[in-house]
Amino acid sequence: MSTLTSGFNKYKSKLQNSKGIKGGWDIPLILMMLPTIVLLAVVSIYPFMWLLKYVFYDYNGFKTYFIGLDNFKRVFTNDPIYWKSVVHTFEYAFLKLLFTMPISLMVAVVLNHHLKGKNLFRIIFFIPTVISAAVYSLIFYFIYSPYNGILNNMLMEWGWITAPIDWLGSSAIAMSSVVIVAIWGGFGNYMILFLAGLQSISQEVYESADIDGASKVQSFFQITIPMLGPILKVVLLLAITTALKDYQSIMVLTGGGPLDRTQVMFLYVYQLMFGNENSAAGQLQIGYGATVGLVSSIIIGIATAVFLKLSKKLDNIY
Amino acid sequence: MKLFKKKWVTGLLTATLLGTTLVGCSSPANSSNAPKSEEGTIKKEVSKEEGVKEKGKEEKVLVWTNNRHDAEYMQQVVADFNKKHEGEINIEFVINTDNYINLITMGISSNQAPDIFCTMANQFDLKSFADSNIIQPLNPYITEEFKQIYDLKALSYEAINTLGEDIYYVPTAQRSGNRLIYNKELFQKAGIAAPPKTLPELVEMAKKITEVGGGVQYGVGMPGQSFAFSRLIEPSAQVSGVGPYDYVNGKYDFSGYKPFIEATRQMFTEGSMIPGAATMKVDPLRVQFSEGNIGMYSNASQEVGVLTDQFPAKMEWGVAEIPSLDGQIKGALSALPQVGWAMTTTVKNPEAAWKVIEYLSSLEVMVGYVEKGYSLPSSSVVMEKVDQSKISKLAEFGKKDYESVYPQFPQVTPQGKGWKDVLWEACLPTDMDIDKTLEELTKSYNEALDAEVKMGKVKRLIIKDYDPLNFSNSTYTYLNE
Predict the structure, then answer these.
(1) Which of A139, A154, B96, B397 has the most CB atoms in a 10 Å sphere around its CB?
(2) pTM value?
(3) What CATH architecture is B52-176+335-404?
(4) CATH fold of B179-237+257-334, please?
């Protein structure tokens, strides 16, 4: 909020100093900013403050019991499931990014050329982004089904496997299965962002390189990648924060199982705050869920700050 | 001048945008006039004027349910009611299946709760709901006519639907205890003459069916993502006299579950369980059973409707009693009162709401409900009116003399997972140490129980003369320590 205010003040003084505008408030500017500020306050800041209060309470949705710092004590000393979920979140995010970024970039580069039907391919690859994660995850749930699932049937038909594989029920491969769905659902979105970045690179630069005798591979590594630096930084930032917060598709596919193998931070928070369909009739743990949510947000904040620090070089356009 | 004009146009546009945004954010005016107390709960203050219908004004009664299987029938009976009471009372019938109880508590906090909601045993903690003024007792509204259909004394279960003399809902139906549902053709194919009486027999039969199934048909199925533990393992433990709570000493004890976990794990390791059971939901499992690919699974009376209408079975199927550990019945099989209509404290017109409850519980509605195979009735008066020829399959789920509604033990929230999750995970083919798991689970639940009793959240229940087969005449003691 303070950054916002200081930015606003700077802008105001800039306007006041400029020719033609003397003193006073810029009403249209304020009116234009107000909806965003109001919405931010109502749907983001207020709920966050509301939630913050409950980190000191045992709250089941309608009755509160003050318990001091017990929720924090539990997070840091007596909740192995949560810390497992933190590790799984980073594992999931790392694997998702490891494949999504190169695939998105490669597809964007290919579709940036004058190919026949490139717009059709762009639409097809972008479709997963506009479909609800719950819907496509449900489709994948049936594709992965060990019994009569399309994937197992195909692999068995081709003779690649002899017995059906339990893609989502086996601890050894459940995470990989979940990551495959995440890659499928995510790469189209980043492909579009990369395409926008690629289109901003002037063709003259490539032509100059061509005259100088640079090969396509050289052009890609010496021109495309460096000039995509700023957009790459934004895309990576978005991809990291999104991957660390992902949980919808995991909730549909495995519910965090088997044996917590695919449990991630925000799925755990969701289950504490809204209940676990499969669980015994325990009560909601909104107070503890708020605490876990707060700790998770801080972890994501730290990860983002580390990334921003490490990625400073990407800002330098050649 | 130009700049001035431009600024005005921009200002006008942004003001319009701002206005529409704020209108979108505002809450519906005067959604309820119920007084609000701290924590968003509603204080019960029924004024004398309440319930008096204004002349010519139609009263709206908002009804929520989480039952989807009876949706077609219920929508029809609601339409009939609305037609009959046009201009007087109009029922708005809403089906909410996900996070149902959560939605009700949130609805109370935000003045958007239903007037009436459908509920069943163990769906929520009655004492917490009553203490927080979410629901109200129905005693002032219950009529003699209603009592003639429903024997209130027999249908009052302490801490389930009643607290002392206060009745919060009257179950109109009874979910039978679970049964073993089996594929007769697969049994024949595997050379099995009769369904199992003991758990080891069930494990053996599941293996036999899988062996003759040729990789297509499997012995048994449990839906890992839909209350798997409650389907077959928990009922089998119940009839063997094993449960999660030691009523005599007033504490949790999960140690008795070991042989049941071992038997389930054996079915996994021997490949008798349908592949994918660990992450399967209940409907895909039902589909596979109705297709003839599963030898046995377990559920209660609602499966009649499922295997007749929802996923019609393509083969002959039978119903058998749940096998116990050694063939002896040593404990009661849990049967759950269900389809009870509770009234919230935010109800706008309690008299109109009660009329709706009375109608939904009436012979007119309930006889059809039972004949459609949705559930067994809780009332013998309803059962007498039912055309028995229409419920032949449902009759196989008829009440057994060892079925009963268990006393509600304190529901606590331990640090860690719920007990059914932990016990199901122990059933999976892993190297998880069963003894250690049960020991840790018992410890964490008793720690939570001690802490929550101390906080005043729950009371410790002790039944000194507890008999696992008959607890209707037991003496319940609730302790604050």
Answers:
(1) B397
(2) 0.77
(3) 3-Layer(aba) Sandwich (3.40)
(4) D-Maltodextrin-Binding Protein; domain 2 (3.40.190)
